[in-house]
Amino acid sequence: SDLCLIVGSGKEPSLRVGCWRGPYWRYWRLLVGKIVRTLTFFKPTEFDSPDQPGSGKNMDPGFLAKLEQARLKANFPWVITAGYRTVSHNKKLGGAPNSWHLKGMAADIACTNGWQRYIIVKSAIEAGIFGIEVCEKHIHLDNRPDPCMWCDVDK
Length: 155
Description:
By secondary structure, this protein is of the alpha+beta class.
């Protein structure tokens, strides 16, 4: 279980909510009704759509929390190959019109060997990520509510 603390600190009025899980301390700051997530393993720019620098900030905080938890469980570095997508970039790639990438609730992780595929899929499921596509060069993870897993070796 998590040990969570609520404390006030800093120059600006804020509420910090921190959770201790394993060796990593994570916190969220509530500033004027907006939650700012501090990422442990990823930089927000890793999730940018190539045609819109800074768009990684559109990623869903709940999905990022699950992704961070999955990465912690996997215990090896992940390379994000896709995160948030603009509508035009999604069309250019031939993505689904209702893609989870458009909502900031999907990420693709580079992966080319069976052992890493297994660990990524296992850790994603344990972290509560249930949309999983296994491709030749990456694993797609998304935040769909119902479990769904499929393979596409042509991608």
